[in-house]
Amino acid sequence: xxxxxxxxxxxxxxxxxxxxxxxxxxxxxxxxxxxxxxxxxxxxxxxxxxxxxxxxxxxxxxxxxxxxxxxxxxxxxxxxxxxxxxxxxxxxxxxxxxxxxxxxxxxxxxxxxxxxxxxxxxxxxxxxxxxxxxxxxxxxxxxxxxxxxxxxxxxxxxxxxxxxxxxxxxxxxxxxxxxxxxxxxxxxxxxxxxxxxxxxxxxxxxxxx
Length: 209
Ligand SMILES: C[S@@+](CC[C@H](N)C(=O)[O-])C[C@H]1O[C@@H](n2cnc3c(N)ncnc32)[C@H](O)[C@@H]1O
Known about the structure:
The chain is an alpha/beta fold. It has one domain: Vaccinia Virus protein VP39 (Rossmann fold). It has helices spanning 23-33, 45-50, 68-75, 87-99, 137-143, 159-162, 176-180, and strands spanning 15-17, 58-62, 79-84, 106-111, 123-129, 144-156, 171-172, 185-194, 197-205. Strands 1, 2, 3, 4, 5, 6, 7, 8 and 9 form a 9-stranded mixed sheet that branches. Helix 6 (159-162) links the parallel strand 6 and strand 7. The longest helix is centred in the middle third of the chain and has 13 residues, at 87-99. Residues 1-12 have low confidence and may be disordered. S-adenosylmethionine (SAM) binds next to helix 1. S-adenosylmethionine binds at residues 24, 28, 63-65, 84-86, 89, 112-114, 129-131, 170.
């Protein structure tokens, strides 16, 4: 069931899609509530550096968290659908989007990545940071417009060298990201392991129709 923010301004400021209370969701909400996972309010450096190569228009920030990248994109003219199942993170993004004067450009979507409906061929750009898409990749491919671009960045398992407590479920094996992008044309792929940060970055485009 959708709750329209304009009707329930005080109670519901986001569109919610049947998001169940799962242990995983509670865990993320606690991380954001107790500040054990502090949001970075700056955009991801790969996004900032590669803005010129990315198509403009409608964007999906998949697993947006508190939404630093959503805000950055909204301030640069994108209309951003920001999707996450943490209501704590979505509330942080709501406040920040008002503070930054871009609340009309950021659509807050509270929902599960696996279930939240995504319109087919709706997005010029999909960004997803630090949450491996894995089996969700076909949903993303479907949601991209022809010639739409995915920018996906996640830690590789090498991150455990720098942070032994890092969550393995948020990491990919070396080369895994590249093989995930079935149905997309790879524009750029890199694996970086430097300065305490091991990650893979994929930029890939959906073929024209
Ligand atoms: C590592 S954080 C990354 C947040 C953000 N992309 C960033 O760069 O700051 C992963 C995010 O995925 C969200 N998440 C994890 N599983 C999810 C699910 N099944 N549905 C929706 N969001 C989910 C968490 O709430 C969290 O905000």
